[in-house]
Amino acid sequence: MSKSNPEATSNSTDTENSNAGRQGRQVAKRAFAAEINDATHVFKQSDEERAPNFALLPSGEVANRYFLVGTITEVNDVGNEDDYLQARVVDPTGTMFVYAGQYQPQAAAFLSSLEPPAYVAVTAKPSAFESDGETYVSLRPETTTRVDNETRDQWVSETIECTEARLDAHPSLAKTRTA
To answer: CB-based contacts of 150: which residues, under 8 Å, 6+ apart?
Structure first.
C-alpha cells in the first residue's frame, strides 16, 4: 500500500463497485468511531428531498458515506411495531451505533442472523439527531460483511494513516496533535 495516499487504495467497497453508474456517488471515507461520534455538524448541500447528509468530522473530513470495521458486540430490536435493529460496533477508539430497518433490508437480515461478537465491515451513511443541544451521529448501513481479524487489523492500520493524512492537511489540527 502506498503511504502517499492511503485513501486511494483503501476505499473499494461493494457499494462503490455496484453503483459505479450512478452519478454523484461519493467514495466511503475511513474514520474511527470516536471521530464520527465527535462530529458536531451534519448538513445537506441542497434543499432537495433526497439530498444526502454530510458529516463534518473534527479532522476536517466531510463525507456522506463512511467505511468502518469493528466488532459487533450486540444487536437489539429497538423498533416499536416493525423490526428496527440497533447494532453496537466497537473499534479501538470507541462505539458506533448502526441502525437497520425496512429501508435497509439486506443489512437488517444480516444483523438479525449474526451471532455477536463478530468482526464486520460496514459501509454506511451518517444520520444525526439533536437532544438537549447535543448532536448524536449514527450510521445507516448500505453494506455489511463479516470479516476476519486480519482484515480488521488492516483497516485499523489504514484508517490511522488516513486520519493522520487529514490532520496533516490542516496545519492548525496538526499543531494540536503534536503539542
So the answer is: none
